[in-house]
Amino acid sequence: MSAATDRGMAGRRAPSATRLAVRRNDFRARSHPAWWAFLVHRLSGIALAAFLPLHFWALGQALHGEAALDGFLRFADQPLFKLGEWGLVVLLAIHLTGGLRLLVIEFRPWSGLRKNWIAAVAGLGFAVGLAFVLALVG
């Protein structure tokens, strides 16, 4: 195809496949706070979804009798499980507040980046995690 037929109506060249690929894989966007908020929201959702089968299995121990449930609860009283509970609470708080942030962005007429919303989501998620740790310790 010649350069004359490759030009658009304004006389500019149409972007080639190579230039489009470079634009899509631009790593500079990954340093942006909104990209990190997107990534944390998606990863926290995946982690929470992966936790659900384990949670249902633990609840199912009650169906096998009181002894089976008590055995699982004694096993789950270890510090590693407490750390995991804290991680789940933080993931849930971050995912919840990130989802609320997205709803505000969708349904409010504001424009712009809203970096303050991203900071508020992170701060609120970690505040909930801190409150949970203090409840575990105290």
How do the helices and strands line up, and which of them pair or pack?
Elements: H1 17-24, H2 33-60, H3 66-75, H4 79-107, H5 115-137
Helix pairs in contact: 2-4, 4-5
Question: Overview of this structure, please?
Answer:
It is a single chain. The chain is an all-alpha fold. It has one domain: Fumarate reductase/succinate dehydrogenase, transmembrane subunit (3 helical TM bundles of succinate and fumarate reductases, Up-down Bundle). Helix content is 71%, strand content 0%. The protein has five helices and no strands. α2 crosses α4 and α4 runs antiparallel to α5. The longest helix is centred in the C-terminal third of the chain and has 29 residues. The radius of gyration is 24 Å and the shape is elongated. The termini are far apart. 8% of the residues are buried. The model has no long low-confidence stretch (mean pLDDT 80).
Features:
single chain; 138 residues; mainly alpha; 3 helical TM bundles of succinate and fumarate reductases; 71% helix; elongated
In short:
The protein is an all-alpha fold and 138 residues long.
The end-to-end span amounts to: 74 Å
- pLDDT < 50 runs, ≥5 residues: none
Question: What is the succession of H and E elements?
Answer: HHHHH
Query: What is the CATH class name?
Result: Mainly Alpha
What is the CATH architecture annotation?
Up-down Bundle
Basic shape: elongated
Average pLDDT level: 80
Strand content: under 5%
| Structural class by helix and strand composition | mainly alpha
CATH topology: 3 helical TM bundles of succinate and fumarate reductases
Count of DSSP strands = 0
The number of domains is 1
| Main sheet summary | none
Instruction: Supply the number of helical segments.
Output: 5
